[in-house]
Amino acid sequence: MDTCPEATKLALDLSKQLITLSTGSVALSITFFKDVITNNQHKRAFLYSSWILFALTLVVGLLVHMTITGRMAQASSENLAVALAPDVRIVIGIQILFFICAILSFITYAIRNLRGVD
């Protein structure tokens, strides 16, 4: 188990950045929804799946923050060093996975839309 408080801070920063990028991606794609949407259901499925995955990234990001907060509270009450525990690593790994899948889904939608692939 990593007892470096810097690792915990970096994990929180990474989670915040993923939350910010996910929120911005959804906001921008919804803003230009009329300009980018097609009548093809298969293409739209990639866009909708990216929105769902971005939303899951947000939810898991909140879980990351709650998990780290819980670990910090536990460490301070027991006078221990703050640790980046395996449960925190798993949750942030899930957040990263959702974010990568969301980006890939959105890129797939964009490429298929630009090329006119059905």
Description:
The chain is an all-alpha fold and 118 residues long. It has one domain. Helices cover 83% and strands 0% of the residues. The protein contains 4 helices and no strands. The chain starts with a helix and ends with a helix. 25% of the residues are buried. The model has no long low-confidence stretch (mean pLDDT 84). Keywords: Membrane, Transmembrane, Transmembrane helix. This is DUF202 domain-containing protein.
SSE layout and pairings?
Blueprint: H1 5-31, H2 33-36, H3 41-77, H4 86-115
Largest sheet: none
- Total beta-strand segments: 0
Q: How many discrete structural domains?
A: 1
Q: Based on CA inertia axes, which overall geometry fits?
A: elongated
Distance linking N and C termini: 49 Å
Kindly state the percentage of residues in helix.
Answer: over 70%
Output mean pLDDT.
Answer: 84
Q: How much of the residues is beta strand, in percent?
A: under 5%
Low-pLDDT stretches = none
In DSSP terms (H or I, runs of 4 or more residues), the helix count works out at 4
What value does the Rg take, in angstroms?
A: 18 Å
Give the structural class.
Answer: mainly alpha
What is the helix/strand order? Answer: HHHH
Protein name: DUF202 domain-containing protein
Keywords: Membrane, Transmembrane, Transmembrane helix
Transmembrane segments: 45-68, 88-111
Give a brief rundown of this model.
With 118 residues, the protein is an all-alpha fold.
